[in-house]
């Protein structure tokens, strides 16, 4: 079996950065180079101040401190890293297409294709090319065609090795992965490539947790895993709406059903709606693929998961508006949290963006506090929607660094992310500073209901009749 000494990863994002850091940490004899065309991102990965890394993940900076410039390197020299490596991971973004055929559903593979063309141009010896990005089923064939037809007639083995880490727990997920999936050709060369990749993971994971499949099963399994996970959230969120109309409590329902070992207790937390860069994109991709094979019923089934998620976000915003006497115009509403979940600085598809947009349409004044998200990012998220002018967004939205001070003269507080620190705030002080009646809308169900009510707040949370 070929022993790998040099790895290159194209794409220094939320997956490439943490994944390669863990590989470098666990495989000190392998030189790992992470490359990106975004020079600012690479500069941030190389910043001496580890609090300035472009990705915030608990445990990441400690690993970077140990490995960076020993056997882990971040660079913009893409061609050089490709040339040197025996194994190349492609970990670039695969967003939903915003133009042309499949607009709004299909995955945009232009970055993947550019990588394949670049590898073909540079490679002078045999390479194993690993799809780490999430890709539509049968993409490997397209990559192989490009490599074989434009390359220097060296041999490329393509593997699919989807990543299952969740942000906020990425390091732990990588160190203790439930499974690693490796798909590849069922030829002797394909099997050898799978073994070479497996040997890397075997540095820290039991061999029985490394699952080898054909390449198409591997590509499809990634989309299906995300669809199943998101489906659980939409299922419980649909029930949260029913709980709010009855005297049922969604947390009690979750617990009661989750204790059935066939259902299981994880991923049943009702919320303001799932966000993140993956769930929506990957389900839309699955919907598109199903449609393109003429499977309309299959497509409709999965699309409902997204429809329910959109409904949950607008339901939350509408409840704020109707509770505040059907008008939020000129009212100060404080958002606690902007990230799509706790322990990450990522805001892609965060429910907070859509709730803010709905309230801004009603001319609310929004004050936002998030412990890890920058002001620049928040304005960029709102501007990207193109709902109103950039000036209007800056007029109606303020981003602050002091969450307690923010509550002065506020009509309402909305909890959009489940950051632990929100639970520990002095809610008595917050209450005193707010206009009365003082409202709290808890989109994450993290506050102590009895305590908050006893302070005098009008408290609403997802999945419970107030
Ligand atoms: N974020 C997650 O939690 C997660 C988890 C599992 C899988 N995934 C999948 O992994 C892939 C990457 O996701 P991400 O969140 O890390 O994206 P990201 O946007 O954070 O990072 C992608 C990086 O690739 C770089 N890039 C794009 N084209 C390039 C090129 N031709 N050459 C060099 N660099 C290039 C970009 O500049 C960017 O820095 C996606 O397919 C995603 O679906 C993401
Ligand atoms: O019970 C739950 C669990 C999650 N969420 C929300 O769902 C979203 C996604 O959360 P999570 O799955 O923990 O984070 P991601 O980083 O998006 O990770 C998902 O997407 C990744 C990208 O494909 C996959 O690798 C992971 O396995 C998959 O969990 C977030 O907004 C969460 O707040 C809920 O509302 N209720």
TrEMBL record:
InterPro entries: 6-PGluconate_DH-like_C_sf, NAD(P)-bd_dom_sf, UDP-Glc/GDP-Man, UDP-Glc/GDP-Man_DH_C, UDP-Glc/GDP-Man_DH_C_sf, UDP-Glc/GDP-Man_DH_dimer, UDP-Glc/GDP-Man_DH_N, UDPglc_DH_euk. Residues 334-449 form the UDP-glucose/GDP-mannose dehydrogenase C-terminal domain. GO terms for molecular function: NAD binding; UDP-glucose 6-dehydrogenase activity. SUPFAM superfamilies: 6-phosphogluconate dehydrogenase C-terminal domain-like (SSF48179), NAD(P)-binding Rossmann-fold domains (SSF51735), UDP-glucose/GDP-mannose dehydrogenase C-terminal domain (SSF52413). Keywords: NAD, Oxidoreductase. The keyword Oxidoreductase applies. NAD(+) binds at residues 11-16, 36, 41, 92-96, 133-134, 167, 278-281, 348. The active site is at 278 (nucleophile). This is UDP-glucose 6-dehydrogenase. Catalyzes the conversion of UDP-glucose into UDP-glucuronate, one of the precursors of teichuronic acid. One of its GO terms (biological process) is UDP-glucuronate biosynthetic process. It comes from the Bacteria. Pathway: Nucleotide-sugar biosynthesis; UDP-alpha-D-glucuronate biosynthesis; UDP-alpha-D-glucuronate from UDP-alpha-D-glucose: step 1/1. It catalyses: UDP-alpha-D-glucose + 2 NAD(+) + H2O = UDP-alpha-D-glucuronate + 2 NADH + 3 H(+). Its EC number is 1.1.1.22. Belongs to the UDP-glucose/GDP-mannose dehydrogenase family.
């Amino acid at each position: 079996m070929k022993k790998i000494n040099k790895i290159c990863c194209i794409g220094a994002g939320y997956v490439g950065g943490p994944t390669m850091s863990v590989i470098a940490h666990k495989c000190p004899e392998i030189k790992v180079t992470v490359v990106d065309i975004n020079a600012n991102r690479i500069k941030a990965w190389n910043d001496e101040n580890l609090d300035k890394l472009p990705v915030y993940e608990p445990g990441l900076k400690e690993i970077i401190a140990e490995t960076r410039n020993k056997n882990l390197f971040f660079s913009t020299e893409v061609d050089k890293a490709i040339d040197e490596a025996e194994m190349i991971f492609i970990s670039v973004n695969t967003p939903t297409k915003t133009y042309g055929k499949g607009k709004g559903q299909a995955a945009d593979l232009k970055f993947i294709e550019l990588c394949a063309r670049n590898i073909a141009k540079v490679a002078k010896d045999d390479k194993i090319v690993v799809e780490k990005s999430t890709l539509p089923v049968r993409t490997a064939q397209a990559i192989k065609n490009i490599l074989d037809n434009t390359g220097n007639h060296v041999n490329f083995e393509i593997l699919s090795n989807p990543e299952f880490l969740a942000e906020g727990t990425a390091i732990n997920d990588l160190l203790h992965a439930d499974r690693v999936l490796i798909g590849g050709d069922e030829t002797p060369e394909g099997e050898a490539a799978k073994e070479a990749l497996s040997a890397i993971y075997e540095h820290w994971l039991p061999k029985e947790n490394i699952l080898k499949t054909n390449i198409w099963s591997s590509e499809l399994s990634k989309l299906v895993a995300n669809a199943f996970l998101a489906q659980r959230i939409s299922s419980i969120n649909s029930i949260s709406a029913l709980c709010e109309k009855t005297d049922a409590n969604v947390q009690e329902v979750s617990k009661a059903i989750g204790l059935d070992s066939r259902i299981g207790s994880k991923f049943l937390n009702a919320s303001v709606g799932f966000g993140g860069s993956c769930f929506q994109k990957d389900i839309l991709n699955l919907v598109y693929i199903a449609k393109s094979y003429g499977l309309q019923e299959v497509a409709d089934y999965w699309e409902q998961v997204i429809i329910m998620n959109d409904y949950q976000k607008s339901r939350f915003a509408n409840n704020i508006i109707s509770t505040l006497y059907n008008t939020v115009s000129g009212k100060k509403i404080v958002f606690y949290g902007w990230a799509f979940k706790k322990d990450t600085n990522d805001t892609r598809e965060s429910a907070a963006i859509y709730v803010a947009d709905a309230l801004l349409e009603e001319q609310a004044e929004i004050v936002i506090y998030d412990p890890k998200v920058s002001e620049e990012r928040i304005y960029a998220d709102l501007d990207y929607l193109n709902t109103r002018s950039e000036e209007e967004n800056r007029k109606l939205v303020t981003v602050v660094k002091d969450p307690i001070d923010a509550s002065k003269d506020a009509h309402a507080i909305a909890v959009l992310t489940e950051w632990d620190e929100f639970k520990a705030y002095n809610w008595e002080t917050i209450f005193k500073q707010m206009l009365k009646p003082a409202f709290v809308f808890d989109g994450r169900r993290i506050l102590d209901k009895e305590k908050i009510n006893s302070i005098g707040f009008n408290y609403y949370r997802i999945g419970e009749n107030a």
